[in-house]
Amino acid sequence: MKIENINIPLMISGNLIENINLNDNYYRMRIKAPQIARKAKPGQFVMLSMWKNKDPFLKRPFSFYGIESDSGTFDILYKEIGKGTQIMAKSKAGDLVELIGPLGNGFKIPENTNNIAVVARGIGIAALMPLILESKKRGIAIYAFLSAQTGNLLLCSNEINSISEKVFYTTDDGSKGAKGMVTNFLQNVLKEEVIDVVYVCGSKRLTKHIRNLQRKYNFLAFVSLEEHMACGIGACKGCVHKTNDGYKRVCKEGPIFPVEEVIFDD
């Protein structure tokens, strides 16, 4: 019996190519790991560690921010916030990186898609960037709706401006774009344009707003969920999330889910 197309994650070592401080505590890391880069899809993620003596003990999950299968590299975005990312922030080119991936299920782009909207809060844009680039290759028009606390935390804005049909910004302090909910801009666009699919990553509150708009304007919508993970392969069941079909593992059945399937307890 021949079994095909089984997505078995790889446990390999990669090499750090560069580690760039973008601003404040945010960094972009490029890793050379051809076996993973060739298999990675938009929306998937990798478990990563580069600390000695198993301290911290567990690997950390990071969405693919950039995937370059030809060069055998991929990028991640991260914020220096805990012990693991503090070690990452001090790492240098040539350092060894322990990896498991690619993991999870990626974004779906339905056939005959003409226009998509991507809605992101802060570093949530990282999970959406490979989807944006893939959509651009397919000739799909991209409407981007980005929000953050301050203007300097609107990551990747230059890249997104260059490839999007329209870009809308909101910031909590009004330093770039407008104050308020970025989904207000989305609603205005939905009144005038046919948006086939909306993709969101950033917060539960943001996803709830997308669900409310979905009920009114009847579009497809997918969310990239984030949960604390231990193993990343579905064995420990530590990253389950409530859905209409019971609890599902974000690392295995996700991290991409139809918005209408996800349940957020208030």
UniProtKB/TrEMBL annotation:
<dbReference type="Pfam" id="PF10418">
    <property type="entry name" value="DHODB_Fe-S_bind"/>
</dbReference>
<dbReference type="InterPro" id="IPR017938">
    <property type="entry name" value="Riboflavin_synthase-like_b-brl"/>
</dbReference>
<keyword id="KW-0479">Metal-binding</keyword>
<keyword id="KW-0813">Transport</keyword>
<feature type="binding site">
    <location>
        <position position="251"/>
    </location>
    <ligand>
        <name>[2Fe-2S] cluster</name>
    </ligand>
</feature>
<dbReference type="InterPro" id="IPR039261">
    <property type="entry name" value="FNR_nucleotide-bd"/>
</dbReference>
<keyword id="KW-0001">2Fe-2S</keyword>
<dbReference type="InterPro" id="IPR012165">
    <property type="entry name" value="Cyt_c3_hydrogenase_gsu"/>
</dbReference>
<keyword id="KW-0274">FAD</keyword>
<dbReference type="Pfam" id="PF00970">
    <property type="entry name" value="FAD_binding_6"/>
</dbReference>
<feature type="binding site">
    <location>
        <begin position="84"/>
        <end position="85"/>
    </location>
    <ligand>
        <name>FAD</name>
    </ligand>
</feature>
<protein>
    <recommendedName>
        <fullName>FAD-binding FR-type domain-containing protein</fullName>
    </recommendedName>
</protein>
<dbReference type="InterPro" id="IPR017927">
    <property type="entry name" value="FAD-bd_FR_type"/>
</dbReference>
<keyword id="KW-0285">Flavoprotein</keyword>
<keyword id="KW-0249">Electron transport</keyword>
<dbReference type="GO" id="GO:0050660">
    <property type="term" value="F:flavin adenine dinucleotide binding"/>
</dbReference>
<feature type="binding site">
    <location>
        <position position="231"/>
    </location>
    <ligand>
        <name>[2Fe-2S] cluster</name>
    </ligand>
</feature>
<feature type="binding site">
    <location>
        <begin position="60"/>
        <end position="63"/>
    </location>
    <ligand>
        <name>FAD</name>
    </ligand>
</feature>
<feature type="binding site">
    <location>
        <position position="236"/>
    </location>
    <ligand>
        <name>[2Fe-2S] cluster</name>
    </ligand>
</feature>
<dbReference type="GO" id="GO:0051537">
    <property type="term" value="F:2 iron, 2 sulfur cluster binding"/>
</dbReference>
<feature type="binding site">
    <location>
        <position position="239"/>
    </location>
    <ligand>
        <name>[2Fe-2S] cluster</name>
    </ligand>
</feature>
<dbReference type="InterPro" id="IPR019480">
    <property type="entry name" value="Dihydroorotate_DH_Fe-S-bd"/>
</dbReference>
<dbReference type="GO" id="GO:0046872">
    <property type="term" value="F:metal ion binding"/>
</dbReference>
<dbReference type="InterPro" id="IPR037117">
    <property type="entry name" value="Dihydroorotate_DH_ele_sf"/>
</dbReference>
<dbReference type="GO" id="GO:0006221">
    <property type="term" value="P:pyrimidine nucleotide biosynthetic process"/>
</dbReference>
<keyword id="KW-0411">Iron-sulfur</keyword>
<keyword id="KW-0408">Iron</keyword>
<dbReference type="GO" id="GO:0016491">
    <property type="term" value="F:oxidoreductase activity"/>
</dbReference>
<comment type="similarity">
    <text>Belongs to the PyrK family.</text>
</comment>
<dbReference type="InterPro" id="IPR050353">
    <property type="entry name" value="PyrK_electron_transfer"/>
</dbReference>
<dbReference type="InterPro" id="IPR008333">
    <property type="entry name" value="Cbr1-like_FAD-bd_dom"/>
</dbReference>
<feature type="domain" description="FAD-binding FR-type">
    <location>
        <begin position="9"/>
        <end position="109"/>
    </location>
</feature>
